[in-house]
Structures are given as C-alpha cells and as structure tokens.
Design brief:
It contains 39 helices and 25 strands. The chain is of the alpha+beta class.
C-alpha cells in the first residue's frame, strides 16, 4: 500500500536510538535534582518541560501552586496520592523547577498558559525545601557544617534559613520532640514564598519501631510534626506543602507500621484540606488528593516526548493513521467496536508512531501488576523495544503489539521481570525466537512466514494476556478481534491471521483458548498433555481400528451389497453381488507411485483366502491418498488422546479447573470433526480393475483410478456418481449393447445360442465384460429386447434341434436359469422352419351355439359341448410359500430368497407381495430382563405388529 515506515517519520532521542539510556534515567529523583547531580533531562528546567507533557491533573496542581505562591489563594497542603509509578515525583519536579525560578517562565514549555490563566506575568522565586524519606535515617543525622540535623524538622529549619533557622528548633531536634506550629509558622513566614516537597514520607516513618526512641524522634513525634506543619501552613499565605502518599497500602506501605502511617497521614491531611482544595478534588474526581493519575490518552504524549525527538512529516504520519482507520472500518466485523468510531483516528494520530493498542494493554493490563510503575514502566519497556526495532530495520507503519521483539533478550527480560517465575520457556518455546514453535510454523508455511503472522499473533496474545496469570480471573485472555487489531496492517488479509491463530491453537504448548479468547500460561496447556498421550497409541492396536470405524460410518446404504473396510481377502464374499473394498492406509495410492495400493488390490482381486476368486468383476476398490495418510493417522492419535483426557476428567483421575475441563470437551469435539473431515479427504481414490481384448487374447489387468470428491455430503452417492459417469458400473443397459457383447464373446465358432444365466454370470467373472449393477439390470435388458427381432430370440430349453418355449420378437416371461439367448439370424431361420412345418388349415362348418333354436323352434337337445382344443386352461393367480431358516444363517438365506423368489414377483407390474416374518424363541432358563428390554425396544423401532414374551409352563 506504500505506507511510510514509522522509522522514516519518527526520530527517537539519541539515548534511545543508540541504546545508551540507563534504567535509572527513567526514575525521577527529587533529591538528586536538589543536589544538582541529576541527568540533564531532569536537572535542566527547560529540557525537563520540553520532555514533559502537562496533563490535566498537573495543570490544575500547578495552577493552585502558582496562586498560592503569589498570595492569590491556592491550597496550602496538596496530597499527591497515585498508584506506584503514577508520576508523583515527576509532578514534584515540575513544581520544583517552576518555583525555583532559575529559568524564566517564558522558556518553560507549557507554563505560560498557566500563568496567564492565573493573571500572573512572572512568578517570584520561592524558597525550596526537599525532604526525601529515602534519604533520611532515624538514627543517622544529616551533617551541615558544624550542625547535625537529627529530625525532619531540624532539616526543614536548616534548608529554610541555615544555622539561624536551625537554632529555632534545635532543642526539639536534639530531644526528638516535634516543635509546635507557632515555631514552624515563624520559620515559614520569614522565608515566604516557600515550597516544601515531602517525598516518600511513609518510607521514612515506617522505620520507627514501637516503643523505641531514635535520634530522629519517634513514630508519633514525626506524625505530630506533619500535623503541626500543616497547621502552620494555613497561617502563611505564600507557603505550600506537597506531600506524596502511596495509593496502595498492600504493595507500597511495606509493613504494618507503614500502613498505620498511611492511615494517620490520611486523617491529618484530610483535616487540613481547605474548601477550595475539596472543591478542586471534586473537579478532578478524587476525594483526598489534588492529583489525577495519568490517563492513557495523556500517556501517549508523555511517552512520545520522552522517546522521540520529533515527527519529521506530520502529513505522512496522518496518512498512515488514516489508512489504518479506514482499514478497520472496511473490516469492521473483525475488529473491536471502538475502531469503528471516528475518534479512533484521533487516537492513532495522538499515539503515533506507537499503536494505541500497545498503550491500552500496558496501562490497563500491565499496570495492574504490583511492581509495574505505569508511565515509568512503559517508558523502560518501550525504549528497549524501539532501540531493537530501529537496529533491526523494522519497517512496520506503526509499532504494534505484534511488533514487540521478544526474541531480543533485553526486551524479553524487561517484560517478564514484572511477571511470576516460569515465563522464560513460554516465550522461548512458544512465542518468539529461533527455537520457538511459531518460527518453525512460519518456516514450513510461507503464507505465514511472509508476514510473520504466527510470531506477531503470539506476541500480541502475550502482551494482552500475560498479566492475567497473576490474578484469579473467571474470564481470561484477549479476544480474537484484539489479536487481529494488534497484528493486521492495511493491505493485508485478516483471514491469514485467522488461519495463523487456528494453527497456533493446534500447535503451541502454553497457549490456551476458550470462548474466542486466547491466553498464555506458565503451565503447559492440555495440548502438551495431549501430545504426550499421543505416544501411547499403536498403529495396529489403536489407530487402524479407529480409522476403520470412521470409514465404516461414512457409508450409507446404497448400490453395494457390502462395504468391506480393511477386510482380509478370506472374509470378502465371492458372490454375484457388488462389493466395495476399502484398502488399509498402509496400501495408500499415489498416481505417480501406485505400487502399494495396486499390489494390495490385486491380491484381494485374485484370491479369496487360499482359493482363487472367481467373481472378479464384482469388486470395486477405495484407496487412501498417500500424501494425507500421515496426517489422518496423526489426527486420530490426537482424537484418542483427547478421549482419554476427557475420560480421566470424568473419573476424577485428572485434576483440572473448569475452564480446562470445558476446553478438553471442546477439543474432543473438534478432534472428532477433524478426523471425519480428514478421513473423507484421505479416502479419495476409486480403483477399478480392467482388461481389454487384444489381437492375441486378453490384456493383463490394468488399474484405473478416479478421484472422489471429499466434499460430497454422501460418500456412497458420490462413489455411485463417479462409477456411473465413468461407465465403471452399468445401471441401465440397452439391448443393442447386449447383442454386441453376445456376438463378440458368445455367438461364435458355430455357437448360435447361449444360456442367459451363463451370460450374466460371465459378466460377474471376467473383467473384459461390462460390469452390471445387478441381475435386475440384465433381466430388464432381456425384457426390453425380447419384443424385437434385432437382438435375440428366446427359448426355455433345447432338445437336439428343437427349442422348447421358442419366441422371437414377442414379449415373454424371462427366467434367467432356464432361458436361452438365440442369435437373431438363427432365431429367424428357426421361426421360418416352424412356420413351414405347420399343416394347411381345413375348412370347417359353422359351430352352432348350444342355445340356438332348432328348426322346430326349440333349443337343440343337450346342447353342443366345446372340444378340448377350444378350451383354455385357467392361470394361477396366487402363490404361497413357507420356509424355515437357520437362525445363524438367516441373514444370508433371506437375501437369497429375496434375489431368487421375491424379485420374480416384484419385477412385474400389478403383482402384490406380502411378507410375514414369524419369529419364535424358547429358553428353558428364561430370558434376562436386559434381553427382554432390548428386544421390545428394537421391535417397537422396527414396527412389529405383535411382539410379546410369555411365561414358561
């Protein structure tokens, strides 16, 4: 699509670009700035504000500080309370540089509008006091020349007014008791405007043990000092206190002592909050603090300013964002709902060159981790990501979740640092790197490899799901639509990533999926358990029987009298009916190398057990495709493994959570469907043996192959269609073709008649003759040709030169076992012979009916009786037959009765046939309840009119 890569439009800062940054540089240190030992980005006010994005919360806070220091209101006490890494210290640094006045406010980016809004042209320099709890020890005083400050109030006095200021609190400092508010008020009044920045107070106070005294005072004296200080500040109009308190007692207080300190500090600060501050807090949505955590949208600008120096071509950047926004709208069904809103384009522009989804996952998901410091953590991770992508020449239009270079050790370690133990093998084995399963998939499938579809999808799932492993969530993972959002780019097909996601779900060991959601876990998923169990199953004992059962279920009743799946030759009948023989996967077929299938089929065609097979033209063969045999065997192993897992879950021998149990059940369903589909795709070759006449006899057996459509809904019907279209099986046969066959093979060498039964049986035996569906096709052909003199004459028998029951060109009753087919010329000659042998008819007098009146006017006496020659015998109109069947051989015997007796009636129009089956079973011991129940149920299903069990005598 020609979109500019991010690296051509967004230039990272030099330290990011060269990878020379230090992790500590991302941590703002108030004391180092105060001591003038910090890095330039924090020490230099102009550079600091250049790289600082003033959020809505920070703007309100600075406005209050500006007003306070100029004596125009504002709040005397401001509590900064946010989550770990929420920007408290960074905010204090903004106040520090603004109040320090080392650089004109006009040179501080973003400050002029705040002063204008407050009606102040230039802010007066303020006295700055910095009290950092991490830099104080209760038992080690701070040394300033000849003065030792033991307590926070001693240090406060020294920073305000040196030795003179310290002298006012010296007694309190030396005995560890808090000075009263009046002393503190006089100190502050003399030095105003004053800014007091107290950072990490809880970290200092929690060091005081119960019942012990320290040079730095006691737990209670320090809290009393804070209370007195806030009281004093109310009386000093140009003094302001900013104090940071952690938001989370559990993760940041550090101990029971720290939690108690937080509780007391909260009460103290709440009591000192002014009405103005409370109103302001309500405005920004907090109860006890003038601070709003950095919003995700604001984080876009914060991170961009810190990591990138500038965007060289904003119009090109907007073009990239517009292409993404249009791509999401055009494929709306595949992406989250928010991408369909017009403001998503604005989010793309604000976040450029980083995709908004990266920020959403880091700020919403990763910030839930106790040790992940929101913006600071994002900066540390993204700096390493950008450095690696820049070094590797990444040409993505945006830095997306799928771009995350987890193959790089630094990036991987930075990410998993915040996670529990055990993520190394997950990332290296499943997600990214030379040895990862995703890489192997992409190497073997160029469709995925061309866009790194598998690796990008796995990285996106990791970014969106890894933090959830630390929480006991009922709904886990990232939705499929968010995976597509993290990987797909304009001009690409989303379907490719859908295929990749399905492949990952099948192959990866640590990837879980349920309800269209995906997540990684440090515990191997059920797929690993399944892969381990697959090794249990042997080919002959488990795999082949399962494939046989699946193939058997694929067939419906149809043209074949029997379907024989992986059946030994001795068990395949050698009769006049049509049979389909399904070859074992070990005898698979390939057009370029058909040897195995042809060899197996030839053996079955030639022999029935130890005896030669006679009815060779009644066998059709179905063979597996050699290219897919290994796949179907692997799928069967998977299905058997899932069956064993589900069985163990039911038996409580495998302990899994509910999500995994449901996943196992779903995987078994999918495996069953996959096996059915794969079996159909595998058994796709219809093999038929053929022989052809040659000048010197018959050719050797040749095998023809025909593909069967695996997508057909009914396999039996599909095979029937293939056989019919390719004339492998004849369901309707014209008499002219029968006549041609008889001339070619039967009426020759002086033979002019042949048994119809012998002809039918020969078509079942010899491969060079037509393969008829059944004897009814042959019979129908005889009936169709009997009324014509073009094809054959008929007779019931021949005695010498005489044909009994001879007919030629007349419809007559066809009995295969007593019917002769006579060559047409011979039949015509015989008919002429019969005609010439008939005597000349003699003239006869009229016959007088019996009731004709006599010449005398009355009937003839006695009436004339018709001669025997004039009377015709009466035809039989009804048939009854009864036979007792062997219970063991009943199925075969009944089949013979249908073929040899019933078909004689059902093949003729107007014949009504009624069959009644009488079953009697006796047992001296009586029938068990289970037998009675099964028989009754089956009789009901089969619609028996009567079926009863009777008690014995």
């Amino acid at each position: 699509m020609g979109l500019k890569p991010w690296r051509e439009l967004a230039v990272p800062h030099e330290d990011v670009l060269k990878g020379t940054f230090q992790q500590s540089e991302f941590a703002a240190d108030l004391s180092r700035v105060h001591e003038k030992t910090a890095t330039a980005e924090y020490q230099d006010p102009a550079l600091f504000f250049q790289r600082t994005f003033i959020t809505a919360g920070m703007r309100l806070l600075l406005d209050s500080v500006v007003k306070r220091l100029s004596g125009r209101g504002g709040d005397p006490v401001i509590q900064l309370q946010t989550a770990f890494g929420g920007g408290k210290t960074h905010t204090m640094l903004a106040v520090y540089h603004l109040a320090k006045g080392e650089v004109a406010a006009s040179d501080l980016q973003g400050i002029a509008p705040i002063l204008d809004a407050a009606g102040i042209t230039e802010l007066t320099k303020a006295k700055i006091v910095v009290l950092d709890g991490t830099r104080f020890s209760p038992s080690q005083p701070k040394i300033h020349d000849s003065i030792s400050a033991h307590t926070l109030w001693g240090e406060l006095a020294w920073q305000l007014d040196g030795a003179e200021g310290y002298s006012k609190v010296q007694a309190s400092d030396e005995n560890g008791t808090a000075p009263d508010s009046s002393i503190l008020e006089s100190l502050l009044s003399a030095q105003q405007p004053v800014v007091i920045l107290v950072d990490e107070l809880v970290a200092y106070v929690r060091q005081f043990e119960e019942g012990k005294s320290y040079p730095g005072g006691s737990f209670d004296s320090n809290l009393t000092f804070i209370q007195n200080l806030t009281q004093a500040l109310k009386a000093v109009p140009k003094a302001v206190l900013l104090i940071s308190v952690p938001e989370s007692k559990e993760s940041e207080a550090g101990s029971a002592r720290g939690r108690k300190a937080m509780d007391v500090l909260g009460d103290v600060l709440e009591q000192r909050s002014s009405k103005a501050q409370q109103s302001l807090e309500k405005t920004v949505g907090r109860v006890h603090a003038l601070w709003k955590p950095v919003a995700t949208e604001e984080a876009f600008e914060i991170v961009r300013r810190r990591l990138f120096s500038n965007i060289s071509d904003s119009s090109q950047a907007e073009a990239v964002c517009r292409a993404f926004a249009d791509f999401y709208i055009a494929n709306g069904e595949d992406f989250p709902r928010e991408t369909q809103e017009s403001r998503y384009f604005d989010r793309l522009v604000n976040a450029y060159p980083i995709h908004p989804e990266v920020f959403d996952r880091l700020y919403e998901d990763w910030s839930s981790l106790d040790n992940f410091q929101r913006t600071r953590g994002v900066l540390k991770l993204m700096a390493k990501v950008i450095y690696r992508l820049w070094k590797d020449g990444n040409n993505d239009p945006l830095i997306m979740p799928g771009s995350l270079p987890l193959y790089d050790a630094d990036c991987r370690n930075e990410a998993i640092y915040y996670l529990p133990q055990g993520w190394d093998p997950v990332v290296e084995g499943d997600i990214d790197g030379d040895r990862a399963e995703t890489t192997e998939i992409e190497v073997s499938d160029t469709r995925f490899g061309s866009v790194q579809a598998c690796r990008r999808s796995a990285r996106t799932i990791f970014l969106g799901s890894a933090p959830s492993t630390t929480a006991n969530l009922t709904v886990r993972g990232v939705e499929a639509e968010r995976v597509y959002l993290g990987v797909a780019q304009p001009g690409q097909q989303v379907g490719l990533y859908k295929d990749a996601l399905r492949r990952l779900a099948d192959r990866l060991h640590y990837l879980n999926s349920a309800n269209n959601r995906y997540w990684f876990d440090t515990r191997p998923n059920l797929r690993r358990e399944m892969e381990d169990r697959k090794r249990r199953f042997q080919k002959k004992e488990h795999i082949l029987p399962t494939i046989r059962d699946c193939v058997q279920r694929s067939f419906a009743p149809g043209v074949f009298a029997g379907v024989h799946v992986f059946t030994p030759s001795g068990d395949i009948p050698d009769d006049w009916r049509l049979h389909l023989v399904v070859l074992s996967p070990e005898a698979a077929f390939n057009r370029s190398a058909p040897g195995a299938a042809v060899k197996a089929a030839t053996e079955l065609l030639s022999n029935r057990g130890d005896q030669p097979r006679l009815k060779q033209n009644r066998l059709i063969f179905l063979a597996a495709d050699s290219d897919t045999v290994s796949r179907v065997e692997d799928q069967v192993c998977s299905m058997l493994a899932w069956e064993s897992i589900v069985a163990d879950i039911k038996d409580l021998t495998l302990n899994l959570d509910q999500i995994q149990a449901r996943q196992a059940g779903k995987s078994l369903e999918n495996a069953n469907e996959t096996v059915k589909r794969t079996v159909r795709e595998t058994y796709k070759w219809l093999l038929t043996p053929v022989q052809e006449p040659q000048a010197k006899g018959i050719s050797e057996v040749r095998w023809e192959s025909f593909p069967v459509n695996p997508g057909a809904s009914n396999l039996t019907q599909e095979i029937d269609r293939v056989m019919t279209e390719n004339e492998l099986l004849i369901s309707e046969w014209a008499p002219v073709h029968l006549n041609a066959m008889l001339k070619a093979w039967f009426w020759k060498d002086g033979v002019t008649d042949v048994s119809a039964l012998d002809v039918w049986q020969k078509t079942c035996q010899y491969l060079y003759l037509p393969r008829l569906k059944d004897d009814m096709v042959f019979r129908s052909t005889l009936i169709a040709g009997a009324g014509s003199r073009d094809f054959f004459g008929l007779a019931q028998a021949r005695e010498g030169d005489t044909y009994a029951g001879f007919t030629f060109g007349q419809n007559s009753l066809i009995m295969l076992d007593s019917c002769l087919l006579i060559e047409p010329l011979a039949a015509a000659a015989y008919a002429e012979k019969l005609k010439s042998a008939l005597p000349e008819p003699k003239p006869t007098s009229p016959t007088i009916p019996a009731d004709t009146p006599s010449s005398a006017g009355g009937p003839t006496s006695g009436g004339a009786k018709p001669s025997p020659a004039m009377s015709s015998p009466k035809r039989a109109c009804r048939f009854y037959g009864a036979i007792e069947l062997d219970p063991v051989l009943a199925k075969k015997q009944f089949s013979d009765i249908v073929d040899e007796v019933l078909l004689q009636f059902t093949s003729r129009p107007g014949v009504r046939v009624k069959i009644v089956v009488d079953i009697q079973a006796d047992s001296n011991e009586g029938f068990e309840d289970s037998v009675q129940r099964a028989v009754k149920e089956n009789c009901n299903v089969l619609r028996f009119k009567n079926s009863e069990f009777e008690p014995g005598d």
